[in-house]
Amino acid sequence: MTDEIVIKAEGLTKKFGNFTATDHVTFEVRKGEIFGFLGANGAGKTTAMRMLCGLSQPSDGTATVAGYDVATEYEQVKRHIGYMSQKFSLYDDLTVEENLVLFGGIYSMPRKKVRDKITELLQELGFEAERKTMVKSLPLGWKQKLAFSLAIFHEPSIVFLDEPTGGVDPVTRRQFWELIYRAADNGITVFVTTHYMDEAEYCDRVSIMVDGRIDALGSPAQLKRQFHGNSMYDVFYALARTAKRGD
């Protein structure tokens, strides 16, 4: 992790009619950081991520990602990031290899580099025997690992992961986080949304959203000290109680 700021949001807001999904969110993320964007379902995490990925226009406020304005340079933003959605973004009716070739083509990677990357990636994942396997035949945890590998296949500077570990068992979740650590060690900034509070412990810093606002921001250790908790669950429940009282 370095001091270089690669994501910066100031007062980022998204409204749908009279409903404010993301309410004046402000934060920064550094290069190589694993930044957790936490909160209960419906807290506004996915809405904020979609704006940062150039997929949705802000109603108010500003944000830059990889040096590009998300409101005016969203196509440049998309070219410099990776993205993994809750649905994994895989094509079930293509083989593992065909998915990788397709994504390499989407990002205009040279054919030789695509071939070399495929061989390297399948070896790293232990998927050599699955090269010609249809994706729909893979177990859920394998699909998850493949989807993450596709999100960083073109070597982006930042990868956005939206609830990437939903629906899988704890062992597979830990294995997935090993892939995240490896990406961060290679200088990729990881921005991950999750509602699993235990996963916050794996992040360098976390923000916790409540009702569209960021109500806490810091390292897991800092937040546990601040809210007198032994775990990130304690921190989250303390914030939820405060929000409920309207303090």
UniProtKB/TrEMBL annotation:
<dbReference type="InterPro" id="IPR003593">
    <property type="entry name" value="AAA+_ATPase"/>
</dbReference>
<dbReference type="GO" id="GO:0005524">
    <property type="term" value="F:ATP binding"/>
</dbReference>
<keyword id="KW-0547">Nucleotide-binding</keyword>
<dbReference type="InterPro" id="IPR027417">
    <property type="entry name" value="P-loop_NTPase"/>
</dbReference>
<protein>
    <submittedName>
        <fullName>ABC transporter ATP-binding protein</fullName>
    </submittedName>
</protein>
<dbReference type="Pfam" id="PF00005">
    <property type="entry name" value="ABC_tran"/>
</dbReference>
<keyword id="KW-0067">ATP-binding</keyword>
<dbReference type="InterPro" id="IPR003439">
    <property type="entry name" value="ABC_transporter-like_ATP-bd"/>
</dbReference>
<feature type="domain" description="ABC transporter">
    <location>
        <begin position="7"/>
        <end position="236"/>
    </location>
</feature>
